[in-house]
Amino acid sequence: MVRRRSGTVVGAGAAGLLALALLAWFLTDPGHDDGGTPSCGGLRATGWRPDDTMTREFARYGDDDSRTDDWTGGDGTRSVRLPDGRTLWLSADTFLDRVHPGGQRVPHPSWVRNSALVMSPGGRLTRTLTGPPAADGRPSALFPGTTGGNGGELWRWPVQAVVEPRAPGSSERVVRVLLWQRGSGAAPWVFGVPLATEVATLSLPDLRLEGVAPVHRPAADTAPERRVLYGTSAVRHGGWTYAYGADERGVRDGGPSRAYVARVPHGALADGSAWRYWNGSRWVPDAADAAPLDFDGGTGGVPGSGTGGAPGDGGPDGAGDGERAGSATNTYTVVRRGGTWLLLTVDAGGPDGKPSRNVVSFWSCAPHGPWHGPDTVGEPPLPPGAAETGASAYNPQGHAEFGGDGGLLLGYDVNVVSDPGAIHRDVELYRPRFLRLTLGPADGG
Questions:
Q1: What are the chain's domains?
Q2: N vs C: which end of the chain shows fewer Cβ within 10 Å?
Q3: What whole-number distance in Å separates Cα of residue 353 and Cα of residue 345?
């Protein structure tokens, strides 16, 4: 920033330099550039059809018994396109080993907390990435876990990844993978207590794990449901990576959580000091000052259409009106199309407060909102016979690199939480499935 010395007369040339300097400061100051564009217009899904090609490719690869150390099923499915045309698919809890004829897994299959799959430029899955063999010879997680001070397991679930320069301005590129660190806990935290957001670095082109860096760890005395983990989605735009996150009120209550966003200059995702968090009016360096995203005038449900968290949850951290429907889980997705930001999520509750099976969408002209909606996309179809097992669809994720005809490839996961054995009796009950969305103007967009 340029300062003018007291009593000094600035000539025309100096004034021009000062104007240029102020313009450069304005364009780079995180408090001003909001990522919006004048070409923005409302977007929604106007239709969808099953993408059987992608769904069948994951089934083909999972059923291939030529190896016993590769993926037969998993969830948390997100993707990133690599510079050479390959696609890296990230998987959280992953089953390995063989699949019997008829679609049953072998008894006691190998299982790891995370893995990654490599897809060729032609769309064929070719290999599974895991860590070094464990003491018993079985594969280990690609992103290894640790042990907490109390002896409990601390593990990492990969979320979204981006390709970026190794450092700002560098010509060398690497893959940066956002991770959620979680620890074992009692109900309702049967899927782990949220602990921290981390970033792993994979080299290119060999995809070798180089290391894991912490970027944000909520204070230990923060209630688990109020801890925000970032990375459920990440969008690169205008020299920044926008990393979306959520608290975990929905895990505690079965209702909505709340959405947040941070941004980082390209090349600095693994540098926690470079992160800036949206506080409702500008980007700030302290994550404790972050504010929930704005949905049609209300800060609340992830992404809550103004619900203010769980119905009736008022107070200074939420609007709390508890009246308007439309809310979601903490694993939503954001993509950018033609200047418009589109957010998709499973609706975590209708007017009766009970979970819905529908995917809904919201749109915005800037990465932080305000978000307009919800627009109903529809109910993702389950595999044949899955409804009778109590299976559910969750974690819708946009795969923008497979844009094709201008639509959007949307993947989602399937699981049977009430009967873990069901996913071994039928491997299709724990594999991603895909839809092809057609996009068009939203009402009033």
A1: 31-441 (2.115.10.20)
A2: N
A3: 16
